[in-house]
Design a protein that fits this description.
Radius of gyration: 27 Å
Distance between the termini: 82 Å
Shape: globular
Oligomer: single chain
Order of helices and strands: HEHEEHEEHEHH
Structural class: alpha/beta
Length: 253
């Protein structure tokens, strides 16, 4: 009788010990996982979080909104809608949005010149884009930066299919531009191709940011420096069959 009673007490203590061990282990594992997750998020902060300080209405931080477009009807309507929403939010609180330019790379004026601030530039010579009209984008920026008078020290490279739903502050940090990371742009997965245009002596492939050229907020003088390289590398990539086949419509991004 006493033996059975002692056995019952021992079993009860074992259960308590097991439960205590379980909860202690669970809490320890949870803490480790949370700390690891926090570390991983910390590594991505430079890509995924808003900067701690932004312009927010500072006149020195104003950026010029520039987009490239053609005189095709669909491009015209995209530009009109984009410009409409730009005007709606431009002067709201915390906006650093400056003037607006539609860089028209059709080589001639169209019927929206009086409606949207526009600057006409030349398209690439016939046949050079090989049917990939987006190659006109870097060439358009090269010409605009050389010929236009741009008051702002920063530029937002945008596209006609962008829409402003709220005022945009300047997210760039001095000489460090601000861009958007695209999930489908993965330089590290295409190192063989990337190395054709970014040799090893320039650094690891992970130095190539997973962004496109738009949306990007960048200092004007930096864009003036890199635009010719952007154009030349884009043309070389289009001329390389392997690169053209792999990157397709995101090639100049």
């Amino acid at each position: 009788m006493i033996g059975r009673k002692n056995l019952g007490v021992s079993s009860f203590l074992l259960v308590l010990l097991a439960l205590g061990f379980f909860f202690a282990t669970y809490n320890l594992l949870t803490m480790v996982i949370q700390n690891k997750a926090a570390d991983e998020i910390g590594k991505l902060n430079h890509l995924t979080q808003m900067p701690e300080k932004t312009g927010g209405g500072n006149s020195d931080m104003r950026f010029h909104v520039a987009l490239t477009a053609t005189d095709a009807i669909y491009s015209q309507w995209q530009s009109r809608i984009m410009y409409y929403w730009y005007k709606k939010v431009k002067d709201m609180p915390r906006s650093d949005m400056g003037k607006f330019t539609r860089i028209l790379h059709s080589g001639k004026a169209d019927n929206l010149m009086d409606e949207i601030p526009s600057f006409v530039v030349d398209p690439l010579p016939e046949g050079l884009d090989r049917g990939y009209i987006v190659l006109n984008r870097p060439w358009a920026f090269v010409q605009w930066l050389e010929k236009a008078t741009i008051e702002e020290e920063y530029i937002l490279m945008a596209e006609p299919d962008h829409i402003f739903v709220k005022p945009l502050p300047n997210l760039a940090q001095g000489n460090h531009p601000a861009g958007f990371p695209f999930f489908y742009i993965k330089p590290a997965e295409h190192e063989k191709i990337i190395r054709k245009f970014y040799p090893e002596e320039m650094g690891p492939v992970t130095n190539v940011d997973p962004i496109g050229n738009s949306p990007v907020i960048i200092k004007k003088y930096l864009l003036e420096e890199i635009s010719p390289t952007w154009l030349n590398v884009s043309l070389r990539m289009k001329d390389d069959h392997e690169t053209d086949k792999q990157f397709g419509w995101v090639l100049e991004m």
